[in-house]
Design goal:
68% helix, 2 strands, 19 helices, 536 residues
Length: 536
């Protein structure tokens, strides 16, 4: 085999129970023909590569008759299979910790900017935070997953094809970011109007401009970062599925929050430069403005509409670039529903944040929200990306492998079997508690006075993180099977839903943790006061 080392291994160890292995044939009469049961019959599948260097063939003969044979893949020419639990853990651990540091920094930034005048005045900006931060799941993580799948299947090995795939994917992300940023602002306005009972039209321009420019710039910066990571991982022989999405999250939250805070404050200050309305009954003289003041006021008045119109006007350019890649153009035409629905789901998480962040019993909510939402989104994005790559390598859209025929698998089979996807799910679930403990320790060192320090809160917080990730990992398995059965790409149709649901679950469970911890502390305090005031 041209010097390439091959080893004979059981197919079950690779998670390829039927894909390339037929196993033992049934006993037959000595003169009868060999037959294979229908359940074990497998259609041959052309992988488009020479497998002679990568396979191990074993043949079982009895006399001159063939009794059994098996052909097992020991290493994919394009991917990194097989992977052990230790390999997956090592590749995921460092990016996950880096992403945690980024999310902790984002939480500290959010804890600071919530007291800025623009966030105090325009409350709907807080509702914008989860959907805009969630764009890294709807767009950047989806982009990273698509590029990882392309890298693992050899689609970007050719330089010309690499340029076409990368440019069309980046153009797609810019279109999606511009449109979703505008829709997120509209959703925040509507949710704010429903909760307050009134719609504040004065804040519409500021909210829309801040949302659109934040989504646009964050998508561009993170998209370029994802391209560099996937290409670098490919050259280093590391599976991009394991590292691309956590690294996207490591800077995604911080970049998005920083851009949102900077531009919303910038627009707010320039909007405040205009002249205050003059009241005839006022004892003050009417304001007198020179030509410079008038021009500055006019400039400030049209700044936010010009930003929105200018970024929207670039959309046709991105569409022309995306047309170079027909699969990307198909996503551009039919892939809006997942990201828009995910944005709406995240907006409800933003509404929860908006209603709780300023209350005393939820002190520290701003710090923990990016962390619990980000950890859940990162882990489920990794798992979904791995499942998608697995399906792309061993099946064709619309046809599920024999061992994944059930749309709603038993939860035990999703976490407790020897298949490669089940193994990676166990690894990801195992990382939840240690990861959160590390993040909690750093938060208490940096901002211990701003967060609850009771053991009760820590226990409920860890339990909430475990529940969130368990639900998301199981849903990733289910949704990947359903979308693949419908000939849809899980990279594009699963990750947005799951990250949006992760934001909602994370925010809701976190608010519940704060509430339960506060109620228990109040009950404990009442008990102490009763004992102190009782008879001697």
């Amino acid at each position: 085999m041209d010097g390439t080392e091959t080893r004979q291994r059981r197919a079950e160890e690779l998670g390829l129970r039927y894909a390339l292995s037929i196993g033992k044939l049934p006993r037959v009469s000595e003169d009868g023909p060999l037959s294979v049961p229908e359940s074990q019959r497998v259609s041959p599948k052309l992988l488009g590569t020479e497998l002679s260097r990568e396979t191990a063939l074993s043949i079982g003969l009895q006399g001159k008759k063939l009794r059994a044979f098996s052909c097992e893949l020991t290493r994919s020419p394009y991917g990194v299979f097989p992977e052990t639990a230790f390999t997956v853990t090592c590749q995921i651990m460092v990016p996950l910790l880096l992403s945690g540091l980024g999310m902790m920094t984002a939480g500290l930034v959010m804890n600071t900017i919530q007291h800025w005048p623009v966030f105090m005045e325009v409350k709907d900006l807080l509702t914008l935070v989860p959907p805009l931060v969630g764009l890294k799941g709807n767009l950047e993580m989806t982009l990273a997953s698509r590029l990882s799948t392309a890298a693992n299947t050899g689609q970007i090995d050719d330089p010309r094809e690499q340029h076409r795939v990368i440019s069309s994917n980046l153009a797609l992300v810019q279109v999606q970011a511009t449109v979703v940023g505008f829709l997120a602002a509209m959703a925040a306005l509507l949710l704010g109007a429903l909760s307050r009972g009134e719609l504040d039209f004065e804040k519409v321009e500021l909210l829309c401009a801040s949302s659109v420019i934040t989504a646009f710039l964050a998508a561009f910066a993170l998209g370029m970062l994802m391209v560099c990571i996937v290409i670098g991982a490919r050259k280093l022989g590391v599976n991009p599925d394991n590292i691309a999405t956590p690294i996207a999250a490591s800077l995604g939250d911080l970049i998005t929050l920083s851009i949102l805070a900077f531009f919303s404050s910038f627009f707010y200050k320039h909007k405040a430069l205009g002249p205050a309305p003059y009241h005839p009954r006022s004892c003050l003289p009417p304001p007198i403005f020179n030509s410079l003041g008038d021009s500055q006021s006019s400039y400030s008045r049209y700044l936010t509409p010009l930003v929105c119109i200018g970024l929207m006007a670039l959309t046709p350019v991105w569409v022309l670039i995306a047309k170079k890649n027909p699969p990307i153009m198909k996503i551009l035409k039919f892939g809006w529903f997942p990201i828009i629905l995910a944005m709406m789901i995240s907006s409800f998480g933003g509404l929860i944040l908006n209603k709780t962040i300023s209350k005393e019993q939820y002190k520290g909510m701003a710090i923990f929200t990016p962390i619990i939402c980000g950890v859940g989104g990162n882990l489920v994005a990794i798992q979904t990306s791995r499942i998608s790559t697995y399906l792309h390598m061993w099946s064709t859209p619309g046809v599920l492998p024999l061992w994944m025929k059930k749309f709603w698998p038993n939860p035990c089979s999703a976490f407790c079997t020897s298949e490669i996807n089940s193994m990676s799910a166990r690894v990801l679930l195992f990382l939840v508690i240690p990861g959160h403990l590390i993040f909690l320790y750093v938060i208490y060192l940096v901002e211990g006075h701003s967060v609850p320090n009771s053991k009760t809160f820590v226990v409920f917080y860890l339990l909430a993180g475990l529940i969130q990730v368990t639900i998301l990992l199981y849903l990733a398995e289910v949704m990947a099977r359903l979308t693949w059965h419908q000939a849809l790409d899980p990279d594009n149709h699963c990750i947005p839903y799951l990250t949006g649901l992760g934001d909602l679950l994370g925010t809701g469970l976190l608010a519940l943790c704060f509430l339960i911890s506060w109620l228990l502390s109040e009950a404990e305090l009442d008990g102490i006061l009763e004992l102190a005031s009782g008879p001697p």
